[in-house]
Amino acid sequence: MTSTTPSRPPHRLERLRDWMDDEQIDCAVVLGADNVNHLCGYWRYYGGPSALVVGRDGERTLAVMLDEGSTARELSSADEVLGYGERGFGINLDPVADLITTVASVPVLARAQRVAVASELSGADARLAAAISGKPVDATGALHRIRLIKDWDELEKIAASYELCWLAQNVVAQSSAVGTSEIELFTAAQAAAQIAAGEPIEFLCDLLSGPNTAKVCCPIHVAGTRALRPGDPVVADIVVRSHGYWGDTAETHVAGANAEAEEVRSELLGILEQARRELVPGATGSEVFANMHARITAAFPGGEFPHHGGHALGLTPFEDPHLIPSDTAPFEPWMVLAVEPGVYFHERFGARVENVFVVTPEGGVELRAAMSGALHGG
Questions:
Q1: Which of 24, 247, 345, 359 is the most exposed place for a label (fewest CB within 10 A)?
Q2: Which residues of 108-146 are buried (b: 16+ CB within 10 A; e: fewer)?
Q3: Per-residue pLDDT band at 375 (split at 50, 70, 90)
Q4: In the chain, where does the domain assigned CATH 3.40.350.10 lie?
Q5: What Cα–Cα distance (Å) separates residue 217 from each residue in 7, 16, 209, 232, 352?
């Protein structure tokens, strides 16, 4: 990249502390797995309720179930880890009560007058407010704004999941043979990604073949027992979460050869490239969507484009901003967007492609290129 490569923004903890200073907040408390992962990097498969206390000086205290304590100390970047409750799982049906008691005892929170709170645990914010003397201040909006911009360590985690998605796509490509069923392709893709990850992953997948590809996605069509026939197109939209961050891809494969489907895919890749160039600071999802929609409808008379043109991703697989007509929020450097043009011909076939990009002043940088040094991040 040239000198227009965007400078890295302040780390998300610095941005949080700046907001706390502006709002005269003494400490912040976030509850729930995504909030905790975002601010201290702790994520566990099937983990218990967790919370993080962040002091105005940036010191972080993590609270997890007692049996998770040693793992949390190893994996998180928190300054202190507190275990709550008793040894074992499933004995206490209200572990959040113990979590709140433990969090409320953290000294910086116990003496705070104004406390920022954001919770993903239903009712936990009200229970915390009742357990502390400080005045709660809703931090949901502030944390949402902070999440829009990805730090380098977040890019690394998204990229790791993105690579697993492409590994799974390669398996679909290699396995799209006549006689193979949709559910076999789905299962092979999931198994390949999970084995490569070396631990359980979260896996979402649209896997459609032949005329089913015109049905776009789940839940309209869910992978089933239909066996591939010669020349069938196969649409695979594969989404993987590992270490708490998501990657996303879509690709159109063919069982054998299909000149029409291959030509449509090639045209969609050209439209994807045009959209990539538009991923610059100040542009909006509504503008990119409008241009994408116009190009698709011009290129494919009789085809439909009935879904969004893309979306951001990170801690969730579908987050702001979105490439849709109503999203007019301007892009900012270091946003991460999945872009997915597609076209569908009623009862015949459909095709879709999707890559993930980092917003820069020169347009989107594909995430694998970004991680290989295109954004000077190595």
A1: 24
A2: bbeebeebbbbbbbeebbebbeeebebebbebeebbeeb
A3: confident
A4: 12-148
A5: 38, 37, 11, 16, 10
The tokens for 48 are: 């218990």
204, β-bridge pairs: 239
pTM equals: 0.95
Instruction: Give yes or no for a contact between 275 and 339, defined as CB atoms under 8 angstroms apart.
Output: yes
Select from 8, 250, 267 the least CA-distant residue to 149: 8
The string of DSSP codes covering 271-323 is HHHHHHHT--TT-BHHHHHHHHHHHHHHHSTT-B--S-SEEE-SSSSSEEEE-
CATH 3.90.230.10 range(s) for the chain read 152-374
Confidence (pLDDT) at 338:
98
The size of the chain, in residues, is 378
Task: Verify cis geometry, omega within 30 degrees of 0, for the bond prior to 219.
Answer: yes
Q: 67-103 pLDDT, tens per residue?
A: 999 999 999 999 999 999 999 888 889 999 999 999 9
CATH architecture of the domain with range 12-148: 3-Layer(aba) Sandwich (3.40)
Helix (H, G, I), strand (E, B), or coil: what is residue 100?
helix
Rounded Cα distance between 260 and 257, Å, is 9
Q: Is the pLDDT of residue 169 over 60?
A: yes
**What's the rounded Cα separation, in Å, for the pair 337 and 58?**
29
pLDDT tens for 313-323 read 999 999 999 99
**Hey, what are 121's tokens?**
């645990």
pLDDT for 377 beyond 70: no
In angstroms, the CA 70 to CA 83 distance is 9
Mean pLDDT of the residues in the chain:
96
Percent share of the chain, pLDDT over 70: 98
Choose the CATH number for 152-374 among 3.90.230.10, 1.10.40.60, 3.40.50.1220, 3.40.50.720: 3.90.230.10
Predicted local distance difference test score (pLDDT) of residue 376: 61
